[in-house]
Amino acid sequence: MIVVIGASGNVGREVVTRLLERGLRPRALTRNPQGAAFAPGVEVLGGDLDDPGTADRALDGADAAFVATAGPAAPAHDEALARAVARCGVPRVVRVSSVAALPPVTDAYGTAHAAAEEAYRATGTACTFLRPAAFMSNTLQWAWSVKADGTMHQPFGDLPQAVVDPADVAEVAVRTLTEPGHEGKAYTLTGPEPLTARDRAHRLAQALGRPLTFVDASEEEAHQAMVKAGLPDDYVTALLTALGDPTPARGAVPLPTVEELTGRPPRRFDTWLKTNLHHFR
């Protein structure tokens, strides 16, 4: 039985769907089981990783675990999960990490992901780490302002990133969960083309058929907005530092990894946009 931690997230939900398509019956951990709306065949487990015992309940009897933690609480959640992996004897773990964890690690955000990877390795279980570039779905953060006044605000507007579709990350995750040969590996996952935020904004305007205004926010403006939204100051600082440094090895240049692992090219941003355009109308 495969356990999906973070099953309501943009990657986790896709993992659940693909496991069902393979005839498997995953266990999905979610904080909101009533609103999760998973398809029949999923064992839905409600629980919050802030609560002691949730990790053990989720991983009890697991043959493999997919882990996607996020936000300021992620380091604590990963520590709890790693301890539970060891206690429950989970044979295989696949964790969504980040390109920021690629050495040399240069910022606190990458340090947190690298520390999480090491925590799972230390359990002695077979681990695979997926290190995606920025997700195409991050574009959804513009939806409210696009609908409100036709603007998109983001810092580092001219830095390229080979953004990746979360569905491609999920497909790689399912293969590494269910097929042999991925133990001890770390895969950097990107989309097929480098795009700046300004590029994505232009394509969104074309797809909507109306003019939009891209505002290249300063780092300080972005910092203030994220803190105002409730994120801790030190977490915002770490995240913005990582976002402002997409080096070629860390998501700025497309890599063939998705195609090598899935047998098909990664999805293009235009394809993702067509599927998700309704969010911006």
TrEMBL record:
One Pfam match: NAD_binding_10
Sequence ranges assigned to domain NAD(P)-binding in this UniProt record: 6-180
Record Gene3D superfamilies: NAD(P)-binding Rossmann-like Domain, UDP-galactose 4-epimerase, domain 1
InterPro entries hit by this protein: Ergot_Alk_Oxidoreductase, NAD(P)-bd_dom, NAD(P)-bd_dom_sf
Cited PANTHER family: PRESTALK A DIFFERENTIATION PROTEIN A, PTHR43162
Protein name as it appears in the record: Nucleotide-diphosphate-sugar epimerase
